[in-house]
Amino acid sequence: MNIFPALQTVLYTISTALLYPVVILLIFLSLWLVIYTGSFLSEWIKRRQFRSSELLADFLEDIQKRKNIPDKIQKSLPLHIVNYAKELNTILQGNSQFMEERVEDLNQRKEYSLLKDVDKIRLIVRIGPSLGLIGTLIPMGTGLAGLTQGNMAQLSSSLILAFTTTVVGLALGITAHFFSVVKERWLMEDMRHINLVTEAMTKVDGDSSTV
User: Fold this and answer.
1) Residue 111 neighbours by CB under 8 Å, 6+ apart
2) What DSSP character marks residue 68?
3) Burial (Cβ within 10 Å: 0-12, 13-18, ≥19) of residue 171
4) What is the percent of the chain with per-residue pLDDT over 90, rounded to a whole number?
5) 169 φ, ψ (degrees, to nearest 5)
6) Three-state SS across 22-66?
7) What is the rounded distance in angstroms from the CA atom of residue 83 to the CA atom of residue 70?
8) Whole-prediction pTM value?
9) pLDDT, tens digit (0-9, with 9 covering 90-100), for 71-122
C-alpha cells in the first residue's frame, strides 16, 4: 500500500493552513514597525542634543555632590538613565549593609532591560524574511496545483501573493536591521553613561575606590 499520496495531502493541508497566520503576522509586524519608527525618530532627535559621553563627564563632580543628575542635563539624557539615577539614589540613601550588591544588581538589571529592548527589533530581522519566504512558497504550491488543472487565474493570484509577501518580508528585515544597528550603538552609549553615573554617585570623597 502506497501511503505517500496520503502523507503528501497532509503536508499540503498543513502548509496551506499556515498561509493565513503568516499573512496576518506580516501585516501585524508591518504595523508595529510603523509605530516603532515614530518612537525611533523621536528618540533619535532627542539624542542629537546629547551625543558624547564627555559632556556627561563634565558634570561628574555635581553628580557626586547631589547624588543625582543635575537638572540642566536631565532633559538632554534618555529618561531611563534619569530614572536609573533616581533608583540608585534611593539605594544609596538606604544605608544597607548590602549596598554594593544592590547597586550591582540595579546596574545589571538595567543592562538586561536595554538588551531586551534591542532584542525585540533583532527578532524582526530574522522573522520578517522567514515569514516572507514561507508566504512565497505556500502560494507557489497552490499556483502550481492550479496550473495542472489549467486554472491560470489561480496561478496569477498565487504568484501575486507570493511576490508580495516576499517584498514585505524583505522590507521588514532590512528596516529592522537598520534599527537594530543604531539601537546597539545607543545601548553602548547608554551603558557608558550609566557606568559614569554609578561611579560618580558611589564615589566617596577622598577615596579613589568605587563600587
Assistant:
1) 191, 194
2) S
3) middle
4) 34
5) -65, -45
6) HHHHHHHHHHHHHHHHHHHHHHHHHHCCCCCHHHHHCCHHHHHHH
7) 13
8) 0.78
9) 878 777 888 888 898 899 888 887 777 888 889 999 999 999 999 989 989 9
The closest of 115, 116, 107, 109 to 195, measured between CA atoms, is 107
State whether residue 18 is helix, strand or coil: coil
- Grid coordinates given for 27: 501585516
- State pLDDT tens for residues 179-204: 999 999 999 988 988 998 998 888 76
Q: Which of 52-56, 61-65, 192-196 has the lowest mean pLDDT?
A: 52-56
3-state helix vs strand vs coil in the chain, percent to 5: 85, 0, 15
Give the number of residues written for the chain: 211
> Cα-Cα-Cα-Cα dihedral of 201, 204, 205, 206, to 10°?
-140
| Beta carbons of 178 and 40 less than 8 angstroms apart | no
Find the helix packing angle between 4-17 and 19-47, rounded to 10°: 40
CB 113 within 8 A of CB 132: no
Q: CA nearest 57: which of 197, 210, 208, 209?
A: 197
Contacts of 187 (CB under 8 A, 6+ apart): 114, 115, 117, 118
